Amino acid sequence: MRDTGVELTECDREPIHIPGSIQPHGALLALAGDAVAQASANAHDWLGAAPEALLGRSLAEVFGPEGAARIRQALELDDPRAANPVRLEAGGRALDGLVHRHDGVDVIEVEAAAEQTPDEARASLAAFRHGLVEVQKARSVRSLCDSIARSVRELTGYDRVLVYRFHADWHGEVVAEARDESLEPFLELHYPASDIPAQARALYRLNWLRNIPDREYRPVPLVPAAHPRTGRPLDMGLAALRSVAPVHVQYLRNMGVAGTLTISLLRDGELWGLIACHHNTPRALPYELRASCELLGQLFSARIGAAEAEEHRDADLRRAETLAALTDRLAGTRDWAGELARDPALLQLVGASGAAIVAEGRVETAGDAPTPRAIQVLAARLAGHPLPGGLVATDHARDELPGAEASGVLAVPLSDTRLQWIVWFRPEVVQSVNWAGDPRKPMEPVADGAMEVRLTPRGSFALWKETVRGHSVPWTAGDRRAALDLRRVVAEVVLRHAEEIAALNRALARSNAELDAFTYIASHDLREPLRGIRNYADMLREDYAGRLDAEGTGMLDTLTRLTMRMDGLIESLFEYSRVGRLEMEFAPTDLNAVIDDVLHSLAHQLREAGVEIRVPRPLPTLPCDPVRVGQVFQNLVHNAVKYNDRPDRWVEIGWREGTPPVLYVRDNGIGIPARHHEVIFRIYKRLHARDRFGGGTGVGLTIVRRIVERHGGRVWLESAPESGTTFFFTLQPD
Ligand code: ADP
User: 696 CB less than 6 Å from ligand 1?
Assistant: First the structure.
């Protein structure tokens, strides 16, 4: 959570532990040794003697020998508070004595002893027992809070009892409430951290109970003001009667609360929250009941750590199950990134609203994610970002990762190169935190110079909605762990896939190379005897001229034609294998120059066919192998001219912009039926009788496709009989 940015120096300076006075529902004596060194000004009301008359008196003189003995017994304990309440009597009146030692000074506070009837005592005991059972029974954090709110209200009868939980930035939230039906609910309201300033929190940690029976009390000073031994005003950090800071009194007035009791809730010695009891009229609570509340608070405190740990364990378990299921699903697919993006578990795992996977040159997104372009930019930025704990986690990405287009970003790199990432997103919490007051206007110093009221808490407790701009719900330790776990799973799956693919590639490359080598050798070796056959046919024709009849000569001519045809087939097979074996030599290539060469080499055919060549606009410059791409154009233009029997033949060479750009060769020739659009790319596949359209081997398009694919591109066509043909191709991956 963010800092509300409120300056509270005045409130933080308020020396609330040394107010110099007490509340009047009891009296206070501070000792020096066995004698009274300070007494509250109201001592006469409680102890039957004026403060001045008590100073220097021994405990026995004030409380009688029995009372003094009990006090001394308490003071012998490490923490004298364990003996409270000490039964005392003074001025003929039964009193509850509360003994403590603080800052090296022994202090005795007295207040009216509880005057419970046996029935009332039984009822309190039953309520306390019931509370113990309820709190003991509760398993979850939520039920612990609910049960303690209910139990404390049942025990004390306050109009409203709420459980107030501190967040990491010390702002508070009401997480449970038991109240009189007629009161408006405070549940889920948030209070700014300034409502309970640091030094108040320090006192709540020290002292589990804080009781203010009547906010409109008159403070009672101590006589003398300073303790004679320390020379300083008494530190009342542990005193039950400690006077209330004027600012807090004002706060209670604003809330319309007359009497309060506050019980601290601690986890591992740190303040976790408070039980705040509010009453609309003044309310005094006997010590026994307060102590019962304190015990309930201590029981709660002992259990809250375990309950939270259990909740974390449950959450971790759920995460582990999700992850295990996800692992199985990823293991069964080659497209792990696509699969992961489609899997709802990806978002559930960390409670994100969107996610992206940047891997293998692709961006896959899930849920509510920024555009792929923005994600690329983010990934580039992440590559240079510090990686505490192996990941990047922020709930205010706008400041930390400008341009992230989300408020919360959690990102794990998938490789040490930091080029591949899984990134999760959380939106800005239109954090409708129901602040119970405006945190930006907490305390206004008043100018009336009145010493007691130095600060005025805000007057308004109307619901105030604070929208925390640019912040998301923060990522928890569990979220981070889950992100790192997923990274491990993906790394394993990807590694396994990469190994499989590498093995497959090796096998494919081997068989491709073997095939090409075989074709090369075969075509080489086949040509030799073929040449021999042809030579012998020629020799026959020459040496036996005149001895052969017309049929014999015809047979010889056929033999020669067949050898020539076979030679053509072998030649094209040889060329096909060469394209497979040769390394492509990529360079930025001006395709206009390539076309010029092609047209030049086809000039004879073009002139003969009387074809009009159209190039509507200059071709682009693209990275490719110029010689091989020349071969592609050569084959396509050659076919475009060849498979055309119209008198007005034309061929158009052009391109369309895009990523990647698309090149095309279009003709107004005989066209190709759709059912043949795929087969024409197969080796030796021709659609026509051998001698129609000037013959051919059926290898041209096979070579075209091989060259295009070796560039990472693809080739396809649009055509129908009698309506011409357009071959399209690209020279880069889509
Ligand atoms: P070849 O032209 O040597 O027969 P190709 O592989 O170049 O072999 O073409 C395969 C077949 O595709 C051709 O036989 C022809 O039937 C058909 N074809 C290719 N280009 C065109 C075109 N522009 N118009 C019509 N048919 C074509």
Answer: yes
